[in-house]
Amino acid sequence: MIKTITETTDYLKNKGFENPEIGIILGTGLGQLINDIEILHEVSYNHIPNFPTATVEFHKGKLIYGVFEGKKVIVMQGRFHLYEGYTLQDVTYPVRIMEQLGIKTLLVSNAAGAINLNFKKGELMLIEDHINLQGSSPLAFKGVELLGERFADMSAPYNAEINSKFKNIAKANNITLHEGVYASVVGPQLETRAEYRMLKILGTDAVGMSTVPEIIVANHLKLKVAAISVLTDECDPNNLKPVNIAEIIEMAGKAEPIMVKLFKELIKTL
């Protein structure tokens, strides 16, 4: 992997991706952020050596380098998921590349279902901890110790200082920002009533199909990390209705301006 990481990194440096400070993964709920970035360079994933290619129709496939709120950023417009048939090493490969290019902080967004029924769809949840239910680890491969400590510490995977800033920004702008535990499952099917009950017993506040692998690798690389979920549906096992993907995407779109506001105000302080 060291050889492929070097090859990818050199390619992007030659394309002008120099010394970014912050990496941003534009999951569901942050797509509009791109409109506020002064884009200096962009490359489609399928042109980058050794990079996976996005296959989900509402996820774009570009790596973008530019200036946002006075900071040099590198942005993933579209992410990769285990359910697309990738390995966990594929899913997290871009995080390793962003770290090699120079980032010290990784910010992530995603869409999630609210297991905690005090949380409502259209609201946001700051992730303060997570549960990995994807069945493996992105660090479970031969030679991982050459890239960082094999037994990566996960006692505090989300940066307390950044989370505190997010909460202060939300309060100052009258934004509802819950705080809770995110569980990551494989998908792509949605959960059964029994699975929602299990997740609640485990202490889950929101469930999704992404983010945790990237967070694990970011911690492996000693990056500061924060992540926010857009709560797109309410997962009440006693009142479960068939899922409407169009409605979920619409709900994410409604929350998007609020999410963008939070990220803009945060990056000013970093």
UniProtKB/TrEMBL annotation:
Domain of life the protein comes from: Bacteria
Database matches in CDD domains: PNP-EcPNPII_like
UniProt EC number: 2.4.2.1
Domain Nucleoside phosphorylase, residue spans: 22-268
Pathway noted in the entry: Purine metabolism; purine nucleoside salvage
Catalytic EC class: transferase
MF terms (GO), sorted A to Z: purine-nucleoside phosphorylase activity
Keyword Secreted: no
Alphabetically ordered keywords of this record: Glycosyltransferase, Transferase
Protein's UniProt keywords contain Glycosyltransferase: yes
Short name of one Pfam family: PNP_UDP_1
InterPro entries membership: Nucleoside_phosphorylase_d (IPR000845), Nucleoside_phosphorylase_sf (IPR035994), Pur_Nuc_Pase_Ino/Guo-sp (IPR011270), Purine_phosphorylase (IPR011268)
NCBIfam families found in the cross-reference section: PNPH (TIGR01700), PNPH-PUNA-XAPA (TIGR01697), PRK08202.1 (NF006054)
Protein's job: The purine nucleoside phosphorylases catalyze the phosphorolytic breakdown of the N-glycosidic bond in the beta-(deoxy)ribonucleoside molecules, with the formation of the corresponding free purine bases and pentose-1-phosphate.
Family that this chain belongs to: Belongs to the PNP/MTAP phosphorylase family.
UniProt-recorded name of the protein: Purine nucleoside phosphorylase
Organism classification: Bacteria, Pseudomonadati, Bacteroidota, Flavobacteriia, Flavobacteriales
